[in-house]
Design goal:
heterotrimer; A alpha/beta; B mainly alpha; C mainly alpha; A: six-stranded mixed β-sheet; four-stranded antiparallel β-sheet; 10 helices; globular; disordered N terminus; C: mainly alpha; two-stranded antiparallel sheet; 15 helices
Amino acid sequence: MTAAGDVPLAARSVAVADVLLRVTGLEAGYGPVQVLRGLDFVVGAGEVVVILGANGAGKTTTLRALSGMIDAKGERTLRGAGDGATEDVSLKGRRPEQLVKLGIAHVPQGRGTITDLTVEENLRLGAFTRRDKEVTSDIASWYEIFPRLGERQDQAAGSMSGGEQQMLAIARALMSKPRLVLLDEPSLGLAPLVTKELFERLGEINRTTGTAMLIVEQNANLALRIAARGYVLEAGGIVAQGTAAELRDDEAVRQAYLGY
Amino acid sequence: MSNFLQYLFLGLGKGAVYATLALSLVIIFRTTGLLNFAQGEMAMFSTYLTWMFWEQWGLSPWLALAASMVVSFGLGAFIERVLIRPVGNAASNPLAVVIVTIGLFLAINALAQWIWGTTPKRPPPIFPNGSVEVLGASISYQSLGTLAVLAVEVVLLWVLFTKTKVGLAMRGVASNTESSSLAGVPVGLILMFGWGLAAALGALAGLLTATGGSVAGFDSTFMQVALIYAFAAATLGGFDSPVGAVVGGLIVGVVAELCADYIPFIGEPLRLFPAFALILIVLLVRPQGLFGKAQVRRV
Amino acid sequence: MTVNATAVVPESPVAANGRDRRATLIRVVLWVVGLAILYRLPLLLSKPDVVKLTGIACFAIAALGLNLLTGYNGQISVGHGAFFGIGAYTTAILVTNNGWSPLGTLIPAAIISLIVGMIVGLPALRIRGVYLALVTLALATMFPQIIIKYKDLTGGTQGLDFEPDQELTAPSWSGLKDNQWRYYVVIVVAVVAFLLVRNLVRSRVGRALVAMRDNETAAEVVGVNLSLYKVMTFGVSAMLAGIGGSLYTMNSSHVDANQFGVTLSITILVMVVVGGAATTFGPAVGAFVVVMLPELFPASVPKVLTPAVFGLLLILLMAVAPGGIVGLTKQAVAWVRARMGGSSPPAPPEDAGGEPASIAPTTPS
């Protein structure tokens, strides 16, 4: 994992000025099987961070722990919401719906849509925790960003293609106006062209709304293009980290995860 | 011909009663994916509550019903939270959930007998006696009233499911619990709400069954046969379809009535046979029912 | 689960052999003691207690049958009261209408309930899980209506009563009272039924039943003829319930329509679950506990609340101990052994495939 003549990526600590999510010593697993063995990482406000790693490295588990789908040990805190809030809020022991209220949205792997509901209903459900009046206009603006969703607003989500469903899942997650979106393999099962478009949109959304993103990806060329930084996960531990450029340039990372 | 119309009206009136209970079954199936074998007994208990509020506390019949629905809502939510949830979900564990609802069946039945005894009680009259003539056949105010109540209930449920956030969340949880939870839906509360709603509607179904039933009054067993009719209605209509429950209920009511009147073999004693046959045939031939969207989950 | 998990700890063949022998010895002693108790009991107890015990044995036979179907094969029936009733009415009608001797009706009762069970088992090929429970519940609710419909034959709600000379009486050579003789007859049938089911469950067929319960596709792949097995299991299960009902009628010399409603079906299911689904002794333990437990309640608990206690017990068991009393006992024994000896002896063979996996709450993965 070392690039010739450079400081090993594993040994780096990255200074992030404006920390939104701070995770220390995250441990989680399923029953007796421990998957995560103490992860430390941060996501800055408005930052796109990618987690690279092979199948079974613990990427999905990391996201599930963060969104409260599974129990986990270790501290994780989110910067307090609202203006002037300085206190960090601990995320430990909170249920998914509470975390949504705090500003964390999770797009789970492959099945993020509610297939029996229509496209529009999916988006409305995404705004479940909101109390404001802008839900309808927000839905309209998502139809502008993803025109295919607008065309199919009254169709059952399950009747759409994989790519369209993934767009819907992302839009649904963003309807909760999160400060941090967790994306689990958004490109899974999508055609290369669709994947490319998807990541372009994600980059746009990040730039225009300032929503931070933590993206898990197996093949991460595209993810690194929109990400500021990245971590490499192996067997439940972080083995390397760096800026997107540093990771792209690292020989070992390139061979293992970028495929060239 | 006028006989036929007479039987048809009778069947529709009874069918409307089955439909109200079937709606409770459908609501629970839609939110939790399970068949609640205790639904009839819950409705029976609620009917005793209505009777108590009316006979012993002196409320007017409709007010007693409203009070009973409110209390039943709370009891239903409580049952979900304390008794159903610890056992796990229906899909991974069908036998356990069946057994839990059977346990509930036993417990509620015994509790009602203990509190209110076994002598039949006279239900509060919510519709006037008498009937009107339609095309030479008479249709009782009871039947008309039941049909009207059913219509109101259906409209309210339609509004709930399609126009409100809670209804949307209920449908979301039924379709994909995990994603709904990630969308910020408090799944636990929604499940409690679903059970509470089903119990409250059960109070209505119980009273309609009691007032349309035996003149001697009702006792702790009066919902057991009604439950099978309601299950037949829900099976026929599709367990996940409120529309199906209503159409199914009316069909079951009419079919059972006509079979009892026209097929000597069935006659009065074997009234339940058409319901049983319907359940069996629908599950064999078209398990999703007439209006069910998804294939019945076979586990 | 723990019972099986500890059982696969590898041991040296010699130690295992010694343990095996010891375990066999213990089992033989337990059997001898158990049979001796069953033999002595009616000679020690009062008449009402013997009658009650005989009734328990009848229920145990029915529960044995339901356990085969629901516990081992995973097909849920809430309608076994109807099969119990079919056996009961076969005996009652043949005795009172046709002048048969009570014991002679046992075979026709068994055959009729076997056939009806197989017919009901046919739709079960396509209808599963909770939907099968629904169909059987509807059947159980309808059964009393069928009895009332044919009241000329069945006596309807009045029922049928044996004339004194029609009752099952002790032959003079036995020197027993009638109630004691009936007890022995029922116990012999119960023990035979118990051994048959136990051997069936341990055989290749039994493993196939469990395989079907746990994973139908896999069972099909290894060549189990699902349809035949399911229908046969339903038939045999109903037959045992029918035998229980037939014997029950011989014991009480009376039947009526109200005895065989939904409550009876549910009671038999309660017996299986409380005793321990998919365990060898569960049904017998369950039948005993369900009938006798109310006797232990303090007088302050009204009898009418008994079903409420069982209902809540059922829910509690599902949440914390899906293996029922027998499962809990096994866990306790395993725990004590682990505490005392460090390693555990071979698991009792009845555990082969006996885990109530289909009932145990499974954590979603």
